[in-house]
Design brief:
Belongs to the mannitol dehydrogenase family. This is Mannitol-1-phosphate 5-dehydrogenase. Keywords: NAD, Oxidoreductase. The chain is an alpha/beta fold. It folds into two domains: 242 residues, Rossmann fold; 190 residues, N-(1-d-carboxylethyl)-l-norvaline Dehydrogenase, domain 2. Helices cover 44% and strands 12% of the residues. The chain has a six-stranded parallel sheet with strand order 5-2-1-6-7-8, with helices on both faces. It has a three-stranded mixed sheet with strand order 4-3-10, sandwiched between helices. It has a three-stranded mixed sheet with strand order 9-11-12, with helices on one face. Helix 7 links the parallel strand 7 and strand 8. The radius of gyration is 22 Å and the shape is globular. The relative contact order is 0.11. The chain binds D-mannonic acid (CS2). D-mannonic acid binds next to helix 9 and helix 13.
Length: 442
């Protein structure tokens, strides 16, 4: 069977919303993962289709070539398959105009970053890359230096609170305060569930398109982008593609990180311990939905201030609905990765806020106890569980996890009530497993 390419595109029922190659490059994207291909790329292609402009994307793969090579073989074309319980809706994207490899061609990436025609740099580099010594950050700094003051916005799309501020602090520490005169650091909240692609994804793409697509991604129907409007130069008309521009990104971020990502991580650890391979299967375990509803209602919701016009209760319901999508097959072990980088903003902030308000967040403590058990590396039935985390060695060596100050806020280790709660859950999980423990909940 033929491969997806510019040549085979004409014969397909599905075409990009813009003609590939027509728009010039205006965006550099760092982090060519599945999420970027199903999120920023889709918004940007739609923005060009509706609002015009030279906003094609030059995408940079930081280290692995596993996405880069198939994309290049396909003239940078790929499909996004939107999955729900009933059907697969394919869409072919053609918004990428270049694809580069940071590890193999740092000079090429630096030149792109320095190009004054590039007015926006978007980033999905994951939580752990927000550090002064990550390779991709070093390269970004070199590129900025080479711009000589040409205005640009660095738009972080990682799941971190105040992600733009975080990036700004890192960049200012390298290049000095004067850099902010030409560089904007808008905060943004991104949301779409996009599991890592598998052979199953490629098979689905082939069935839907009639050609082979080794760069396809599958995603849920829901997609959201909330952005602070702080762009010193121009930007794509993302609002025409459904993005929300607001001064209040912070309350959206907190809502999404604590509710969607917090419950996602809860399902990942509890589910992995119970042997559930995917998020929807974890949610379907006996007692799990009720436990997650209580977690949302009694622990998470009181720590949130809803963005204007939004009901927290309905948001919570929609999150559980999205997680029950059986077609996504999002692996619990994928979401469980990098726990030390994710839990502070997803769970520990909730616990800290509830403790400060004098409450005992029981369900949040259960989730933390589940992570602690997960870290020890055995599921309830004794099956080994992998620990994929940049701090894995320290986690394995720590006599008491709460003492790890790279992860836990000060005060957790001395909080006797929290410790007692964690102890109790730890023992329950040890004796009865996840399903037994959930079954005994009120
Ligand atoms: C997930 C997120 O892997 C994870 O940690 O919780 O990637 C999640 O799917 C996205 O943030 C949804 O927007």
């Amino acid at each position: 069977m033929e491969r997806l390419s510019r040549r085979t595109l004409d014969g397909l029922d599905h075409r990009p919303a813009i003609r590939p190659g027509d728009a010039g490059v205006g965006v550099v994207h760092l982090g060519l993962g599945a999420f970027h291909r199903a999120h920023q790329a889709v918004f940007t292609e739609d923005a060009i289709a509706k609002g015009g402009g030279d906003w094609a994307i030059a995408a940079v793969a930081p280290s692995s070539r596993s996405v880069l090579d198939p994309l290049i073989e396909q003239d940078l074309l790929y499909s996004v398959l939107t999955l729900d319980a009933e059907r697969v809706r394919p869409r072919v994207l053609g918004v990428h105009a270049a694809a580069l490899h940071a590890a193999g061609d740092p000079a090429g990436v630096e030149a792109r970053l320095a190009d004054p025609a590039v007015r926006v740099v978007t980033l999905t580099v994951t939580e752990k890359a927000y550090s002064r010594d990550s390779a991709i950050f070093r390269l970004l700094v070199r590129g900025l230096r080479a711009r000589g003051g040409a205005p640009v916005a660095l738009l972080s799309c990682d799941n971190l609170p105040s992600n733009g501020r975080r990036l700004r602090e890192l960049v200012v520490a390298e290049l000095g305060e004067s850099i902010v005169e030409s560089v904007g650091f808008p905060c943004s909240m991104v949301d779409r569930i996009v599991p890592a692609s598998t052979e199953g994804t490629y098979a689905m793409a082939q069935a839907a398109l009639g050609v082979v697509d080794r760069a396809a991604v599958a995603a849920e129907p829901f997609s959201q982008w909330v952005i602070e409007d702080d762009f010193p130069a121009d930007r794509p008309a993302w609002e025409l593609a459904g993005a929300i521009f607001t001064d209040d990104v912070a309350s959206w971020e907190r809502l999404k990180l604590r509710m969607l990502n917090g419950v996602h991580s809860a399902l990942a650890y509890l589910g992995a311990l119970a042997g559930a391979p995917t998020i929807d299967r974890a949610l379907a375990l006996p007692g799990m939905r009720a436990a997650m509803e209580s977690f949302i209602r009694t622990d998470i919701a009181p720590t949130l201030r809803p963005p204007e016009g939004l009901s927290i209760q309905r948001y919570g319901e929609s999150v559980l609905e999205r997680f029950s999508n059986p077609a996504l097959r999002h692996r619990t072990l994928q979401v469980a990765m990098d726990g030390t980088q994710k839990l502070p903003q997803r769970l520990l902030g909730t616990i800290a806020d509830r403790r400060a308000a004098g409450a005992t967040p029981r369900y949040a403590a259960l989730v933390l106890a589940a992570w602690m058990r997960f870290v020890r590396g055995r599921a309830d039935d004794g099956t080994p569980l992998p620990l994929d985390d940049p701090l894995a060695d320290r986690l394995r060596a720590a006599p008491s996890l709460l003492e790890l100050d790279a992860v836990f806020p000060p005060g957790f280790a001395d909080d006797a009530e929290l410790r007692a709660e964690l102890d109790e859950w730890g023992k329950a999980l040890q004796r009865h497993g996840v399903v037994g423990t959930l079954g005994a909940l009120p």
